[in-house]
Amino acid sequence: MSNIVEAKSLTKNYGSFTALDGVDLTIPRGAISGLIGPNGAGKTTTLKALIGLCDVDGELSVAGRDPRIARHKLMEDVCFIADVGILPKWLKVSHVIDYVEAVHPRFDRKRAEKFLSTTDIPANKRIKDLSKGMVTQLHLALVMAIEVQLLVLDEPTLGLDIIYRKEFYDRLLNDFYDGNRTIIISTHQVEEIETLLSHLVFINKGKIVLDSSMSDLSDIYTEVLVDADMVEQADALQPLYVRKLLGKKSYTFESVPREQLKILGELHTPSVADLFVAKLKEEKHG
Amino acid sequence: MGKFAVLQFYALLKREVLEHRNIFIGAPVVVALLLLVATTWVAMQIDQSQLAEGLRFVSVLFDGLSPLDMAPFVMLLAIPFYLTLYVCSVIYLINTLYQDRKEMSVLFWQSMPVSNFQTVLSKIVAIVLVAPIFYVLIIFAMYLIAMVWLTILGISSDVDLVGIGYLFLAAIASLVLIYISAVVTGLWLLPSVGWLLLFSAFAKKTPLLWAGGVFILVGFLEDFIFGTQFLANWVASRTSDPNQYLIFEFQSVFEKGF
Fold first, then answer.
1. CA–CA separation, B148 vs A117, rounded Å?
2. How do residues B28-42 score in pLDDT, each as one tens digit?
3. Does the pLDDT value for residue A248 go beyond 90?
4. pLDDT beneath 70: ranges in chain B
5. Domain shared by A144 and A235, yes or no
6. Is B91 a member of any domain?
7. What pLDDT does residue A1 have?
8. What are the counts of helices (DSSP H) followed by strands (DSSP E) for chain B?
9. A180 and A259, same domain (yes or no)
10. Which residues of A touch B100 (CB under 8 A)?
11. I need a labelling partner for A228 at 20 to 30 A (CA). Which of A95, A168, A281, B243 fits?
C-alpha cells in the first residue's frame, strides 16, 4: 500500500461547531507532509483523528488500521508529539525512559540515551523542572528511538526559541527521516518547514483547500512579478491572487501554463506562505 | 499473557504509584508517624510503673494464645489506616483520569501502545490490590518500631518478654488480615470504583461533584417519579453492614477469644 493515510469525508462536530467538514486526505508513504492552516482550522482535530485520540465520522485508514478501533495497536507504528506540554510534569526523565521502554515493543533504550547524551538534560530531574526546549528535545529523543512508520507532529516547536527550533528540524531530518518513514507536521510557522516538505496540505474551516506534492505545486502554481505595462493582460488570465510588491504587482496563477505567463514578467514558484494566503483569500471571495 | 505484557502492566502500575505517591505512600506514612508521636506523648504522661503494669497485663493476656486467634484484635489498631485508605481511594479514583486530561498528559499516555482497557484496569488494580500492600508494609514498619519500644520497656521493667513475642506474632498475623480485608472491601465496592472512574474520565470540571450530584439526582428522580427508593436502599444495604464484606464477624471472634 503506497498511502500511509487514507481519509474520506471525515466529519467532526463539537456541539454546533463543525471542526471537520468532509476532510479527504491521502498521504503517501515516505512523505514529509505539512498540514497548514490558521488557528481553529481543524489541524489538531485532524491529527488527533489520525491517531485515534478523537472520534470522527467517515472512512479512515492509517498504516492499514482504523485508529478508532485499534489505537493501541496503531501506536506501535505511529508516534505523536504535540505542543510541548504533554509529557507528564511529575515524571523524572529516567522514569519516562523506563516507562516507554516497558510499554513500547519497538523502543531502543540505548539509542534514546545516545541522543540524550548530546543534550544538557539531566536524568534525575522532573519534567516540570526542564525548560520547554528541553521537554521537546526529550520527547524527540524518545520518538527517534522508536522504530515507527509514521510520526505525527502537532505544532511541535510552538513557544521554542530559534535555536531549539532549528535543532529540532535538523535532527528530525538527519536522524529520524530515512526515506521510508512518513512525517506529518502541523504548524502555522510555514516558512520554517517549507524546505523540508515533500507534500503539502492546506486546511481551512474544517475543509481541505489544497492537497498536493511539492513537485506538482511548481507545475500548477506560478507567481509572476508583472511589469506595469502588462497588468491588463495579467488580469485577463484570472489570477488566483494579486498583491503589491515594491511598486510592482505580484500575481499568483493556478493551472496557467508557464509558456503563457513568460511574457508578463519574471516567473517564480510561490512560497508556501504566499500560496497559503492566496488560497485562503480565494476561499473567502470564491 | 506473554512476558512483555506482564512487564508492560507492571510499568503501568509503577506509573500509578509514582504519580500518586502521596496516596500510596505519603498518607499512610503520615498516619503511622502521627500514631507513633501520639502514643509516645501519651506514654510520657503516664507514670513508668503504671506503664509497666499495663504492659505486663498485655503480656499475660497474649501469652500462649494463638496469634491467629488474637490477630483480629490487633487489627483494630489499623483502623486509622483503613479509613485513610478509604478516603485516599476516593481521591485517587476521582482524580486519576481527570488529572491526565487537565494537564494534557493524556495525549502522551495515549500515544503509547497501551489500550484504554489496560489503562483503566491498571488503575483499579493499583488502588484495590497494590495500595493495601504499601499500607501493610508501612503498618509493619510502625509495629517494628513499637515492638522495639515495648521490648526496651519490658526489659527495664522486668516484664515477661514471651508474652510480648506473642503480641508481635499476632500483629504480624493481623497484617495478612488487614490486606485481605482491604482487598475484599475494595472488590465489594467495585461498583463505586467504576462510578468514580467514569466521572474522572468524562467530567469537564469538578468530577467529584458530578459523581455525587448525578447519583443523588438519580435517587431523587426515582423517588419523585416512581415514589420508590430502590437505589438508596441498595446502596445502604451494601454499605451499612460491614459484616457483609469483612472477612469475619467480630462478634464470633470475640466469643472465640474469651
1. 48
2. 999 999 999 999 899
3. no
4. 1, 241-258
5. no
6. yes
7. 53
8. 14, 0
9. no
10. 88
11. A281
